[in-house]
Structure formats: C-alpha cells, structure tokens
Amino acid sequence: MKYTLLWLFNLLVITALSQPTSPIVIQTKNTSLVFTIGKNHRVYQSYLGARLANTEYSTLTGGQEAYLTAGMENLFEPAIRLVHADGNPSLELTYASHTANQQGNVTTTRIILKDSVYPVEVVLQYTAYFNEDVITASATIQHHEKKPVRLTHYASTMLHFNADNYWLTQFHGEWAREAQMVDEQLTNGVKNIESKLGARADFYQTPTFFLSLNNPSTETSGELIAGTLGWTGNFQFTFEVDQRNQLRVRPGINPYASDYTLKPGELFTTPDFIFTYSNQGKGQASRNLHRWARNYGVLDGNGPRLTLLNNWEATYFNFNEDKLVELFDGAKQLGVDMFLLDDGWFGNAFPRNDDKAGLGDWQENKTKLPHGIGHLVSEADKKGIKFGIWLEPEMVNPKSELYQKHPDWILRLPNRAENLSRNQLVLDLTNPAVQNFVFGIVDSMLTKNPGVAYIKWDCNRPMSNTYSPYLKENQSHLFIEYTRSFYKVLDRIRAKYPHLPIMLCSGGGGRTDYGALKYFTEFWPSDNTDGLERVFIQWGYSYFFPANTIAAHITSMGKGQSLKFRTDVAMSAKLGYDIRVNEMTPQELQFSQEAVKNYKQLSDVIWYGDLYRLISPYEENRSVLLYVNDQKSKAVLFNYNLTTRRKDLFTKVQLQGLDPKKNYRFRETNLFPGTKATNPDNDKVFTGEYLMTIGLNLTPGKVVPLTSNIFEITAE
Q1: Which range marks the domain in which residue 642 is found?
Q2: Residue 551: HSE in the Cβ half-sphere, 13 Å Cα cutoff
Q3: For residue range 196-235, what is the model confidence (pLDDT) as tens digits?
Q4: In 10 A of CB 624, how many CB atoms?
Q5: What is the model's pTM?
Q6: What is the chain's mean pLDDT, rounded?
Q7: Domain ends where: 479, 500, 521?
Q8: Last residue of a domain, which of 445, 475, 500?
Q9: Are the C-beta atoms of 301 and 291 separated by less than 8 Å?
Q10: Which residues are catalytic, by number?
Q11: CB of 209 closer than 8 Å to CB of 172
C-alpha cells in the first residue's frame, strides 16, 4: 500500500472533477458505441449497434465492463493482466477522464482509466471514421511504479454482445489455399483464432472475421461486425460465451511466449483493432472496410496501380542479362506498365542459382548481370516500361557471406541444431544493426538505381527455434519487438521514399494485414494462380481488402483452363502477368493485349468502386461479382462458371448498387479473338430497376465448365 495515499487522493480529485453526467458516445454515420460510468466509477459498454437518436443515449445504463482486468472479481478471459513490481497480480481500472477530438471526418476519443492503488494508467482510444462507418480501437498502458511491471495480457479492446446465438465466419488455409471461408455457431466456452508464427504470421489463419448476431448473415441481410487487426505479427481473437450466453470478443497481439516487462514511464500501445458494424449483411460491412482502407488504411489507396510482367515463371533462377532484356519485349508487347525481376539476381561468393544459397548477399551476380541493375533499368526505359525488383531482406541462407560474417544477427536457439525452412533463417530484426542493414538494402538499391519503380518485398518462412542474441534475457519480447522493428525499418523507407509502390509478399498470404498495408500498396494473396482456385482465394480476401490491394497474376497454372478464364479472374483484382509471352499463340497475344487495354479502361471502377458479391462460389458452381462506381454511372460484372455439372441450371442474377431510375447499356467485353457475345441481352438497354429486380440470365443455354464473361454496364 506504499503508493496509496497520494495516488488515491489524486485519483479521487480527478474523478470528482471529471465524472461525466452523460454517456461517452463514439459514433459514425450509422453506428453507435456507447460507454457509461457506473457508481463504482468503472467504465461499461452499454451499447454497440445501429446509430441511435441523440436523445436515447441518456437513458442507457449498465452493460459489461469495457476493458476487463485480471486478478479482481472477473472470472473470465481478461483484456489486461498486469503483475506489479511487488508481485500483486491484480488491477482495478476506474474512470479518470476522457477527451474527444474531431478533425473533419475523423473523431478520436480517449478514455483514461487509472488504478486506485497502484500508479497504473490505461488509455482506451477509439477513432471513428464517420462516413466509412469504421471504428478502430487500441489501448496504451503506462505505469510509474519504482520497478518494472510484467504484462501478460494486453488486448487492443474488448467488445461485448448479448444475442440469442452467435455465428462466426473465419478464414484459414495454408500455402496455395489461403483465405478459405468457414462458418460455425459459437457455443459456450472459448474459441481462439490465433497465430504463433512470427514473421509469416498469417500462414494458417487470416486475421479477419465476421461475427453475426442471432442468425447467420448473408451478403445482404443480418446484423454483424467485421473485424481485423492492424498487426504484422502473432495475433489472437478470443470469443468467449459465458453461462448467461453473453459474448466477449478480445482481439489483439497473441500473448503466447510474450510476457512484456514494462519499465516505469514506458508506453505500451496495442495495435488497432479495425471493425465495422452492419445490419445489412456482409456486403455492406465489406464496402465500409474497403472505403476506409482506400482512404486511410493503405498506402496511396486512392492512387493508381501498375500492371506488370514478372519473369519468374519464364525463367525461374535460370537467366542472364540478355535473356531479361529480351523478356522486356514481352512486357512491351502486352502493354503492361512494368517488368518485375524476381528471385535469383544476386550473390557472388554464393550465387543465387536456387533457393539454397545467396540470401543476405544483396549484390548483383556478376555472371548473370555483368552491367548491374542500372543497365536493366536503362534498357527497360528504352522499351518504354518501368523496372521493378524482388527482395527478401529479412532472411538469410546459411550459404551466404552474411551468415559467415554475422552469426549474431540470426534468430536461432543456442545449443540446438538450426531449423531451416526453405533453406533459410530469419534475421534478428530487433537488433538495430540489422535494422540498418535491411534499410540499407533498399536505400542502396534505390540510391544507385533511382529508376527502380517497384519492389516486391518477400518473407518466405515463419519463425521456429526462435531466440534473439540481441535481446538476451528479454526473449519474451521477441515476437512483439520483431514486428515493431519491421515497422521502424518501413518508417525509415517511407520517410525517404514515400510513394514507391511495394508489394507485401510472404510466400503467398503470410502477411495480409493493415498494420503493414499502411506502408505497402498491395499484397500477394497466394502463390496459387490457378484461375479456379483464385476465385475462392480472392473471394475470401475481398471481404476485407479492396481490389486494388489484391495482386492477381495470369500464369500458365490451371489445368484445363483457357487463357481467357484465367485472365477474367485476374482482372477482378489488381492485374499482372507471370507468363511466357513468347509462347503465346497470335490469338492469345492479341487477346492479352486487348485485355490489358480493357483493364486500364475499367480499372477505376474495379479499384475504387463498391463491390457487390452476387453469387457465392461456396453456394453454387459459379461466382458473380459486380463493381459499381460512386456515381452509379458505370459498373463491371464478372461471371465465372466453375466446375459445373449437367444438372446445374443457373437462374437469373439480380444486380445491386445501381440507380433504379437510370438506363444502362449491358455489353460484353474482353472477348477472345474470333468470338462474339452470345448473351441474348448483349448491347441492350435496361433500367436499373429492371436489372436489380428482374435480373439477367448470365449463362443462357448449355453451361460450360471453366468459362467466364466480363460485362460492362454503362449509364446512358
């Protein structure tokens, strides 16, 4: 009790002066989140749902404690657990004050909580994006005890629900089958969605979910929240249904192996939990998140994107300078903006001729590239295209000069055999020297070659047998500090190169989060580019990420699939190519050239329009997507017939998001040379009301598997 007298006196004075007489209201255009202060001075979540009239807020009372602590009377999973310097593992947080700061569309509310005995303060921060109907929540923890305290739980927020039933939609998978969607009903007890993988945290579980109340939600109906975490490391979403059927949702950093020793005065700030409420189904929640992402969550989210040709499938590791320059002609022929040089261009003492050597030695291989990257940039410029390059700066091969020179820079257990994944190890990014090295890789590349217009930043393995030589006795800080250090490096890169397009890649969908996307322009969702598989993968990601962030490349992968089908699938996201252009037939090349032109004409609608998922591939052997621009003057419709069967009879599709009073011309585009549109409604004009009420038959006649159509819908 040695802290008690002065701390308690100050707390009582603050509470007496600032005890609110009305609820604390966080609201957007269509949502309200309301907190009230109980007689015990604790903060309670009294409401979360559709926006109420302002006169209703004063009648709200009670609810569940907003940020449940451990060690007191709480018997369930806590939002925070802290062990004081004297060993006391309890915390009681009561209201001290709050502030609200509005800047245009964005309002940030800070609720300050303090312990009545120990000098511990927690600030709950909620930022409301009014027009986007999105709220972000985080917590900042600080103390002024004489010695460090130990944090064992530190959620970004805690949300409470009271419904008859709860339905969870989660997304999981592994390499080449990312973002597979699963629905289940939550029952009494605890359900966790979590990652313990470190650098490649999203490899098995995607840090996104829908939580539907009372009944399963559809695209157009149901009450739900959609949530995701802005953190490029281990995450955990905990869903706990108690004996009274009340649900607590606790999102944040996974506390696994991550007790954090917090020094006096040090701030510990959790990542943002990003969520939106909808009572109009998953589609509306998705569109809310897309608008928020483009405006606030993604680097240059409303800016243009580059189409590209990657060399990987054409050459793998086997190329030289002349061969690459020849491939530039393929990019020029296609009409894409850029050529991207992938893995294999570096290493001399240990040449990067396969994935077993060279990582860490970021010098041009003199045999392959005797004139260096600058020569390639210059040659690409002569062809009228930009030049981009692949890097994997956080990793190292044992067969490398870096490994030999700096064994202390590598994450690996002492007294244990190394555990390799893809023949590589992870660098200890918590070490400032390693941070300087990683920044220097990028800075040196761009300083020596200012014409480099794009970087593909890869990360091909998770952490295992993990130990940091730099952190010494603070090994439990490793997973957190690695991610923080990753952001430190990116902060430095963006301070010097604020708008350079960079793809976030991790051997597929190992990094898919808004913690990283504020530094990146797009992400690589999967190494699986099979068109049929990509329909499902891109469908899953499309719930939480806008189309201009989802890189989709056309390759030769996809048995029995036409080039048109694979192209049509890629065009519903951010288009690129990774294909042998010189092996295309004249008709395929002509089609691809026209497809690139079509995509550039349609991309504004696809990248920045509202997405309506009309027919789910999880429900039928087809998939239908519609993008509509803000003015409702133009839309793009994608229709994919999947592994259909003779019994499949597809009904008309009712469109969404159009203006019922406008007239729209319906016209098929992206046709293969020598073919004509066969839809009987092609080039006809319909009212928006007709298209949304009666709908269109997109697959008249016999249903052919693995075929597709793209329709342009234009107001007249």
Answers
A1: 611-715
A2: 32
A3: 999 999 999 999 999 999 999 999 999 999 999 999 999 9
A4: 23
A5: 0.96
A6: 96
A7: 500
A8: 500
A9: no
A10: 458, 527
A11: no
